[in-house]
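Many introductory courses stop at the sequence. We go one step further.
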Amino acid sequence: MTGPSTGGTGARETRRAVAVAARCGLVTRGVLYVLVGVLALRVAFGSPGEAADRSGALAELAGHPFGRVLVWAVGVGLVAMALWRLSEAVFGSAGPNGRGPAKRVAAAARACFYMVTAFSTLAFAAGQGGARSGDEQSRDVTARVLGITGGPWLVGLAGLGVAVGGIVIVVGAARLSFRDQMDMSRLPRGARRAVDVLGVVGGVARGAVFTAAGAFLVHAAVTYDPGKAKGVDDTLRSFAQTPAGPWLLVAVAAGLLLFGVFSWAMAVRPRL
C-alpha cells in the first residue's frame, strides 16, 4: 500500500495500523490454507474426517484445547485481512499500477469476500450454528440464482470469472508476481529461493483449485443443475477422480499447504 500522500503523524499511524492488519490477515490466511492442505491430504490417503475447506478447518481448530479461542482469533484475523484489502482499495497497493482502477476494484472485491468470511467465522465462534460447508453454500446459492430470470447467464459468467481468476493466479505465480508484495531485499539468497518455491508451487495449486471450481460452476449453468456446482472440498475431491488418481490430489493438497507457509513468510516482510 502506498498510503496517504502526507507524511504527518496521522499518516504514519495509519501505515502502522495497516501493517498490523496485513500481518495478522496473512498469518490467518496461512493457518487456514495449511489446515485445508492437511485435511485434503487426509482425504487423498483415504482417512475420513472434516471437509477439506474453511468449515472443516474451523471444525478442526474447534476440536482442540482452547479451540473456541482459536476460532475467535481466526475471525479477528479475517477482519484484519478485510481491512487491509479495503485500505488497498482506498490508497492503492504495492507493485506496478497499484493505484490503478483495476487493482482498486480487485482489492475492494477481496475486502468484501473476507468480510463475509469473517462474519460467518465469528458467528461460528459465537456458537450460532455450525460452519456450513462450501459445497452446501455453492449449491444453495447456485440454485437460487438459477431460479431467477437470466440466472444461468449470471451463474455462467460468475463461473467464468472464477476460472479466469484462477488462471491469473497461476500465471502470476509462475511469473513471480508475488515479489511485488514482499520486501525480500534483506533476505539471504537461499531464503529468497525458498520463498520463490513456496510462492510458485502454492500459487499454482491455489489457482488450479479456483479454475476447477469455476469450471464446475459453468457446467452447473450449462446443465441448469445446481448440484454440479462444487465448493472447495468437492473440487479437491474431484482431483482424485482424474486418471492421475489420488496422487493429483496429494500434489494439490501439498501445494495448498505450502501456500499457507508462503502466507506466513509474506507476513514477515510485506511490502505496504
